[in-house]
Design a protein that fits this description.
The complex is a heterotrimer of chains A (377), B (352) and C (312). With 377 residues, chain A is mainly alpha-helical. Chain A has a three-stranded antiparallel β-sheet. In chain A, helix 2 crosses helix 4. In chain B, 34% of the residues lie in helices and 22% in strands. The chains are: A mainly alpha (377), B alpha/beta (352), C alpha/beta (312). At the B-C interface, helix 8, helix 9, helix 10, helix 11 and helix 12 of B face helix 6, helix 7, helix 9 and helix 10 of C.
Chain lengths: 377, 352, 312
Amino acid sequence: MDNLKDMKLSKEDFEFVQLDHDIKDEKFQGEAIGFFKDAMLRFKKNKASAIAAWFIVIIIFMAIFGPSMNKYTYREQHIEWALLPPRVKGLEKIGIFDGTKVMTVRKENLEGKYKDSVVKILEEKEEEYNGVKVPMVKAKINMYKLKGADDVYFWLGTDSIGRDMWTRLWRGSRVSLMIGILAVLINMIIGVVYGSISGYYGGWVDMIMQRIIEIIGGIPSLVLIILFVMYLGSGIVPFILAMIMTGWIGMSRMIRAQFYKYKGQEYVLASRTMGAKDRTLIFRHILPNAIGPIITQATLAVPGAIFTESFLSYLGLGIGAPEPSIGVLLAEGQKMLLDHPHLTLFPAIVISILMLSFNLFGNGLRDAFDPTLRGQE
Amino acid sequence: MKNKEKVLQVKDLYITFNTFSGKVHAVRGVNFDLHKGETLAIVGESGSGKSVTNKTIMGILAKNANIENGQILYNGKDLTKFTDKQFTKIRGSEISMIFQDPMSSLDPVMKIGKQITEAMLVKDNISKDDAKKKAIKLMGAVGIPEPEKRFNQYPFQFSGGMRQRIVIAIALACDPDILICDEPTTALDVTIQAQILDLIKEIQEERNISVIFITHDLGVVANVADRVAVMYAGKIVETGTVDEIFYEPKHPYTWSLLASMPDLDTDASDELLVIPGTPPNMIYPPKGDAFAPRNRYAMKIDFEKEPPMFKVSDTHYAATWLLHPDAPEVEMPEALKKRIQNQKERQVVDHE
Amino acid sequence: MSKQPVLEVKNLKQHFTSGYGKNKTVVKAVDDVSFKIYKGETFGLVGESGCGKTTTGRTIIRLYEPTGGEVYFNGKLISGKLTKEEKREVTRGIQMIFQDPIASLNPRMTVKEIIGEGLKINKLCDNEKHMMELIYNMLETVGLTKEHANRYPHEFSGGQRQRIGIARALITNPDLVIADEPISALDVSIQAQVLNLLNKLKEQLGLTVLFIAHDLSVVKYFSDHIGVMYNGRLLEIAESDELYNYPIHPYTKSLLSAIPLPDPNYERHRKRIYYDPSIHNYEKEKPELIEIRPRHFIYASKSEVNEYKKNL
């Protein structure tokens, strides 16, 4: 605190400024921003979610355009070129993606079969076969040269019947994404309608609708899906049908809870006292406010749906051959995991990124939409 | 009250919070003393810094708080430098706090008997039985009927007023010297409030405890306080005995507070002194007097320099440039004058 | 004062039942409440938490259907089944100001949409321009400006939000305004602002108001008549000054004695009066609302009334 005597104060300092004025409220800074713009601003601030969003966009882009990037189709078979490791034109000089594989072969074959394709000899050892010691050599072998595919480039390699993995991977992603997003979208629509009616009207309507849900929900979903697939055959449509059978229940429960929460809010009561009809109250007042958690829940459900599909395809219950999906690719690759890891590696990476990204994206959305954060920044 | 021993001294306390949108200057240089056996009321609206000041005394500030400056002298030590461990020793047994909402102050799944004896068992070396006896006696003292039976009940079996009594019992369990009450009756009905206030006063007298009472209700202040400190935007703007503050206030904010809400004496035709505008944003602490934009009697200097504390009497200080010898003479507004006049007349009538 | 009251509440009952059979519990939130409000008057309904005052307000405005009793608005019965026309009369004629400034405004709507909703639903405007005019006028009346119309509620302070709520209630020119604890959730310095605004509007627009609050000082200041509620019943009805100067029911007395006054000297000598509901014995004599002094009613049995009269 300054010493009073030190401060140079003049008579003017003590003049009144606003004795008789009406003191008004402070002016507003900035533009009016609606709820969604506000949420988007907040979302962008969250680095992890923004990056995750980009990853999703990239994968969707690849899923659409990836398969047409090279000349192979997803079902073209080149038996003679089966199980080739990945080979990319630019990168092979650096030593990765160069179409080579480390194999242990008989030394005697080095001069014969593997003559042109040996890139480097790593180790020499002896192994016993039927009591006879056979000299073996661990060598890096250029598979493309070996199979007579010198000028051919399969960016992610080929599978057991010579189909291009790049095309199959992105086509598979396309299928998985489509199933996942479509299933969730349909679930969301059914769930929202069912839950809104149940939650808004309450009473008997709610009670009956909830009992119906409990009956349907009591059926184990996996059994249901298996039965569906077995009955309707494999393919995308039966698959989606199976997934929406019980998938909407979670969504409807959540919307119903939201409705219960919001229908007692004072602004809903205020509109009701003004004479607003039920329709207006549901669509104009409650739903727009309740939709935040729904969108988040839906986003988080997509990787779950993709995973379910992959898991079923892995079990052999998925969409039929030759249509790939990530699950199908994983299933095929698993059989030869140790010898040909590239078949499993790339689909696994894609689905991991998808899952992680959707999760982070969903979390980011949830934080962005959360009304309690609003106005505090 | 003269020359009473000081049990707590807060000097130049300055506290900021780190938030998403910037540093909030919650407390900007607060000074006050607490004397033994007295009740000091701290009055202010939300955002004035009253709760933050008292949380600092108890050492329960949020993690994003910074004590930028200042000292809190208690028993020869500076509480601003205390570690959590040191605080644990004095909390409950020397300084205790009760909060506003009795619902959330009690653990819903723990029997209240256990909650009262909890601190006792940790701090003092007494047996469980002795602790229980002490707790039951305490429950009786705070006015809980049939304490032996209710010792084993849960909070949901009590009403709001009863719960607040339990909270008070817990606060007194280890015989503290200082009791800090943070709006303890704001959430209660007015008839229950009256009972709780009477209880606090009774306990204070019996045990000679010093009480800091935080509230925004001036009626409550008139009821319980010996001395009052009025806070606004992180500073104390006026402090004095309760009579001085209510009958001879000097700060325009105090004037507005006293005359802005109707009390039972106010006539329907009386004017209410309204404080226009809203409290300031404490991320950008204003230059000069924080109350200036809302102050009808603001002068040029109020927007430039913060007013120091001007002495009105040995016990009465106010931080307003209106008390500077060069400032124009300003009397308190008519509406307030009238009120005080009515009150003085009533005094006379009562004495007759 | 016209002969017909704007609002007449007769023996209103609102019981909430829960559970079935043996476990059935009935909460009598409103238990036989009757009062009248004439044009231009302000009736204050005061009581502590749980006394049923908010439920009474909400039943009058038809948010709940009463379990018993009747509500008459401008002489017409509004508490039963109504035709579309009759409903429209009510939704235009009775408006409510709510307590919570945050929860009473839809966060997804702009201020002008919120205020204009009443006009839209009740079809009170011919065209867009007319509606905007009315909205701008109303904004200025409550102390806001035109530029506030396009903003969202979260950008406003508590006091401003409450003013938006008031604007919304008043724009349809209602015959009755029910204000349900309009200032309880606000900061102290803002409470005075909103209270002053309500007072000003009351005079300016000649409003008829049902003012519900728990703060007797505020209710006394604002209202012409006061009804004291306790446990779902109206215990005493009188003009404000009359109630303050001659409280008769023991509960009213205890309520008045509990309210602290900002007068330290007075508070030092205060003697509290405590109310014990068990002092009433209504087994033989049923209590009713009896006029004990001019326009001063009390809910008591005949013998109690005789007792009270002796002490006047």
